[in-house]
Write a structure and sequence with these properties.
Elements (H helix, E strand, L loop, with lengths): L13 E6 L10 H18 L2 E7 L3 E7 L5 H21 L11 E5 L1 H13 L1 H4 L14 H5 L11 H4 L5 H12 L5 H12 L3 E2 L2 H11 L14 E2 L2 E2 L1
Parallel strand pairs: 4-5
Antiparallel strand pairs: 1-3, 1-4, 2-3, 6-7
Amino acid sequence: MGRPPRLELPGVPLHVVQRGNNRAPCFFNDVDRRFYLKCLREAAEARGCLLHAYVLMSNHVHLLVSPPEQGAVGAMMQDIGRRYVRIINNIHGRTGSLWEGRFKSSLIDSERYLLICHRYIEANPVRAGMVASAGDYAWSSHSHFTGTRVDTFLAEHPIYLALGNSESERRAAFAAISKAPLSPRTVEEIRAAINTDSALGSEQFMDDAEAALGRSVRPPRRGRPAKVVTGKLV
């Protein structure tokens, strides 16, 4: 039985995670990282996807991207995979798969979770203990949004643009909110959604997405199903 189509709606951001096979490294040096960003930029442009945020960890990547149509993100990731893996295998004298199966993705409620997911992505190196602050890590989009570097291939989401009336106001506002760590509960919600290929958002967002897609978008409930005894749940 084939896997169900991904939760993907035109214009609705997706949080995408792709990991190295068996959690092994997918980047071996900074040249690899620069090449991956080149592949990402060109694949996103070819598929019409808008890239809002990213981080390249040693053995996985996080992306926040809005597709123009259903299937565009999957096509983008396939484009990256074919090109990046072929070249990296040639350069490093390796064979076989680099990535761990199909990527994970989570449909994101822009109004409620866009900036939260954005911050989660860029704070990954901090949570991993690699750096003291997101601005100390070179291989993420954080420096673009705080004004210390310009990534011309990034598409600033309308929710980010609403942070201020000028570029300097937006950068200052984003830098300020990024200093506060996300709560453990919020981190867990994001991880639960991405690990189950589900949606992250308000009840109204979930209802609207289910109506558009014709299936459930909610993370599966934890624990064993409740027993039914004489018509009652126990």
